[in-house]
From TrEMBL:
Transmembrane segments: none annotated. It comes from Culex pipiens. This is Craniofacial development protein 2. It comes from the Eukaryota.
């Protein structure tokens, strides 16, 4: 089996995101884009439509609001830059906790592992809305 790694890490290798594309699947790769050390995009050819996979590693909840704001602004821009007809899937580590508050029941139901939503959880839900 052939493996083709596509990854990105910061200069200090503090964080990074990437994809592993195995075997013949590498022939389906249309585009690989490094946005920054926290966001990358892999666009792949599907049978009926294409996929834009956006891999993320969000700043932790204790980071300054400016860092988190910049991350979600860039994520929103990256999402918007994906071709309109692609299936867009955001995966990765959002460092978020979405709780069981009644407000979120229409979004996630009552099944969250977390009793309360943290700041990153609110940011994630706002991005998804």
């Amino acid at each position: 089996t052939q493996k083709n790694e596509r990854r990105n890490g910061g200069e200090k290798a503090m964080h990074g995101v990437g994809f592993v594309v195995i075997g013949d699947q590498k022939n389906r790769v249309i585009k690989w884009k490094v946005v920054n050390d926290r966001i990358c995009v892999l666009r792949i050819k599907g049978k009926f439509f294409n996929y834009s996979l956006i891999n993320i590693y969000a700043p932790t909840n204790d980071k300054p609001d400016d860092d988190k704001d910049a991350f979600y602004e860039r994520l929103d821009k990256t999402y918007g830059e994906c071709p309109r007809h692609d299936v867009k899937i955001v995966i990765g580590d959002a460092n978020a906790q979405v709780g069981r508050e009644a407000f979120f029941h229409p979004v996630i139901g009552k099944e969250s592992l977390h009793p309360r939503t943290n700041d990153n959880g609110l940011r994630l839900v706002n991005f998804a809305a």
